[in-house]
Design a protein that fits this description.
Elements: E1 2-5, H1 20-28, E2 32-36, H2 47-52, E3 56-58, H3 61-67, E4 70-72, E5 90-93, H4 101-109, E6 113-116, H5 126-142, E7 164-168, H6 172-183, E8 187-192, H7 195-204, E9 210-213, H8 216-222, E10 228-231, H9 246-250, E11 257-260, E12 280-283, E13 286-289, H10 299-328, H11 330-334, E14 336-339, E15 342-343, H12 346-352, H13 359-362
Parallel strand pairs: 1-2, 1-4, 2-3, 4-5, 5-6, 7-8, 7-10, 8-9, 10-11, 11-13
Antiparallel strand pairs: 6-14, 12-13, 14-15
Helix pairs in contact: 5-6
Length: 387
């Protein structure tokens, strides 16, 4: 196959989906690799490095889409790319389909085979770790007086106490944020709905981290004394209630900070997405940092980690084809979003009221020895397409 590495064009996005390391492996498998000019430049990977790894450089995304059977990038397919998609072409990127109906419609109309990368990670995405760690640092930066924050130092100074941090969610993002702020001396409470997660965190940190069940009641009690709130909860799309409403935000101290790493509309009432170019705003006296692609700020490290994690998916698709790859890898199978005009993503079906078909049914592989994988989300849909 011809494999194409696209240059990401989302505002403030500097990552690249494949470094020269991954290109070399794919070339060794016998495939031709085409890299869009300067695709890795902002992440520290220069065109000559890709050429040395065996790739060919093409000037434009138009040439990549025209030439390649499988194209990959980090973030969503933008509207200027829709007309470049070709029927039967394989697309691998972070589609976030449930929240992007126009993008989904384009994928269906163009009859491509699309995989949404964020659902494909067996061991959690390196992007989640990057978002948690760097998001925590951006939260501390937002506390600076020069950024509108309270001017408190994370661990305190002699005679001045350190900050109080509340982290919502004990998954990879929350644990990564905790690692940063706790190691820097903050007083931290991590909240989750899973008692086992809380017990494990307490044990890991020798009970030097407070834990609490995540509920509106408990959060409401803590917010008036919270200097930094880091939201790492994946809030159900379409939920009719806020986990943190405006009155709860208003109860926080003036100059305190909210970092919404999850970036899910509906979780925090005062949330609106921002960019690296203009990352902060103040609402109800609280500084909000709500950048949607935090890992893009550490593009070199994130690209190295992320590219390594998705290489097995890319090699399976290239070496085995879509059907065999989906038999071998349940996490890749569950990430299939569209296949030649059919929606194959359950959460998108439920939230956009579109009929869908399970990938294993569409590919006629349900009777094969399938690698198992849990559903990507808790959202279910019985709005099935009759094949």
């Amino acid at each position: 196959m011809n494999f194409g590495v696209l240059k990401d064009i989302k505002d403030g996005e500097y990552r690249v989906i494949a470094t020269p390391v991954e290109v070399s492996a794919i070339v060794d498998d016998g495939h031709d690799v085409f890299v869009q000019k300067s695709a890795g430049e902002l992440a520290g990977f220069h065109d000559q490095e890709y050429i040395s790894a065996g790739a060919m450089i093409l000037d434009t995304m138009e040439e990549i889409y025209k030439t390649c059977d499988l194209v990959a990038k980090v973030k969503e397919i933008e509207s200027v790319e829709y007309d470049l998609l070709r029927e039967g072409q394989i697309v691998f990127t972070c589609i976030h389909p449930a929240g992007h109906p126009e993008e989904v419609q384009a994928l269906l109309d163009k009859k491509v085979i699309a995989f949404t990368a964020e659902d494909s990670h067996r061991y959690g995405s390196p992007n989640a770790e990057a978002a948690g760690k760097q998001g925590a640092l951006f939260g501390l930066e937002s506390l600076l007086s020069i950024n509108g924050g309270s001017g408190k130092f994370v661990s305190g100074l002699a005679g001045a106490p350190g900050i109080k941090v509340v982290i919502l969610g004990g998954g990879i993002v929350g644990k990564s944020a905790l690692q940063v702020v706790q190691s820097l001396g903050a007083w931290v409470t991590l909240m989750d709905i899973n008692i086992l997660t809380l017990r494990e965190i307490g044990k890991l940190y020798n009970e030097k981290v407070n834990t609490a069940i995540s509920s509106r009641y408990n959060i409401k009690k803590l917010l008036p004394e919270t200097d930094l709130l880091i939201n790492c909860v994946k809030w159900p799309k379409g939920s009719k209630e806020f986990l943190i409403d405006r009155e709860m935000v208003k109860s926080m101290p003036k100059g305190s900070v909210i970092v919404d790493i999850s970036n899910d509309y509906g979780c925090i009432e005062t949330f609106r997405e921002t960019t690296h170019a203009d990352p902060r705003y103040v609402e109800e006296g609280v500084v909000h940092y709500c950048v949607g692609n935090i890992p893009g700020a550490i593009s070199n490290s994130t690209s190295i980690a992320y590219a390594a994690s998705v290489l097995p998916h890319l090699r399976n698709l290239l070496n085995l084809g879509v059907e065999e790859a989906c038999i071998k890898d349940g996490f890749l199978r569950r990430s299939m979003t569209a296949h030649k005009g059919y929606l194959t993503h359950e959460e998108t079906s439920a939230l956009q009221n579109r009929p869908w078909i399970k990938p294993e049914d569409l590919l006629d592989i349900a009777d094969k020895n399938l690698d198992k994988a849990p559903p990507a989300t808790v959202t279910r849909s019985n709005n099935f397409i009759k094949k």
